[in-house]
């Protein structure tokens, strides 16, 4: 049967049947010309109470003062559609969250009015708000937990340092043997050095260490210390280089850079459970926007990566690996500050650090620093 043979207006029937949406026609100035049952259900007004009135009566007083109703009509007229979400007011004064769409109606180039569709999305908005609040609460809880772990780690490590220093000084005061006295002095000095190193690593993580950066050929820095890195890799791993051509220059503190790279090689070695390889590589990259929160858009970066073919790590461990004092090593095999020092160095050098790892597929840690153009 042809559509024209129906004894009723199908479009009008469809509009009148929709009660989950308030659908109404407006004249070019925004006065209401028609109103479907969905409008009465959502907003509480009868036809007689709204026909001929301006649709701004559904807006909050603040929105009316800001000119939001007029802005919606102007945008729909100039851009062909206006869509927004905000608070609207029912007849009884209560507010609800509304998603609204305004479309202009043109005929022969003349604006005849607008059709406006409103949907009550209050429950969805409340659910999203509850979810966001839960996420904020969880983030705060995790932050407090991280601070607790950090405090525990600092207290534990410095207690060990102070215990050695205190015990050594106490014994020095009691002993008469020069040889024994020298041994105790050496132990105290080593403990003090350990405490100093902990402080430097914490300052690096907090981006508070004093750097002495200069324009340096990073490839040359790596080549000059390759034998040191090979010794750090130990007998369990073969350490090789894969350096980009062109000898890129970066503005970094050479000593801190070498310390960060040494930490990565040592971490890779400690992760090995069988004979394997460690590759130190460099390449110049212009990362896509959004790759990292600290990324400077439009800048080229030198990526220095340390890759091992060890057992890799799960996602939970990977996400926490750069936290200070977080470690999967046995007690006494590391403070858990190595990767956090790498993170701090990269951040202070204007770049960032990242970890890519999967169980059984090895680990790749990247230090990214801006290239000096």
Automatic annotation (TrEMBL):
It comes from the Bacteria. It is an enzyme of class 2 (transferase). Residues 153-373 form the Histidine kinase domain. Residues 82-133 form the PAC domain. One of its GO terms (molecular function) is kinase activity. The keyword Transferase applies. The keyword Phosphoprotein applies. Residues 10-63 form the PAS domain. Keywords: Kinase, Phosphoprotein, Transferase. Pfam families: HATPase_c, HisKA, PAS_9. Its EC number is 2.7.13.3. It catalyses: ATP + protein L-histidine = ADP + protein N-phospho-L-histidine. This is histidine kinase. It comes from Pseudoxanthomonas daejeonensis.
